[in-house]
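Q: Could you fold this chain for me?
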Amino acid sequence: INYELGYRMMDDRTFASVVLFMNDYDNLLGADFASSGGLGTGDQFNGGEARARGIEVAFSSRQSMTDKIWIPIEFQYTYTDARFNHSFDSDFDAWGQVEDGDRLPYIASHVWSITSGFRSGNWGLTGSGSFMGEMRIAAGQGPVTDSGVINDRLILSINVHYALTPDTDLSLGIHNLTDRVYAVATRPAGWRPGAPRNMVLALEARF
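A: Sure. Below is the predicted structure, expressed as structure tokens.
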């Protein structure tokens, strides 16, 4: 059962929302799929009672500096506290021996992103930062060693945009601007790195 309670505000230039959420599971189901970092056996594992709760905040605005220049601002933040509500032993590697109150693995408590820049006529330049807090690689609670956690990371990106026509856009994006080296998972065969610095040139046409 998923519960949500929130507030939303919107006008011509500004959008803001705050949402409290709780996802209450009678029997959390885990599955060994290659797409989620498993071996791809398709085996399913019962996790019993679990609960994830937290808050989501979103804000976006467009501020005019002059008649021809305006600044877009977007911000999103999510706090999540996800825990098992009972003790059990599991053959699923990411769960293992679980105690009541253990945090679920691979769920960061803090995630946020911010994007801003400027636009003038056909041109636009935006920069963004995306942060993900540390994540456990197995169920647990209390202090954790470096070998049992995926460290937090902040990834910076930049995008240059030019409108060739009202229906055609040309853009150049550089992602992971600082070439940050970071891990995203430890399954199924050891530590897996995130994407290095990369450039994407795109042409978009709308019909």
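A (continued): The longest strand covers residues 44-64.
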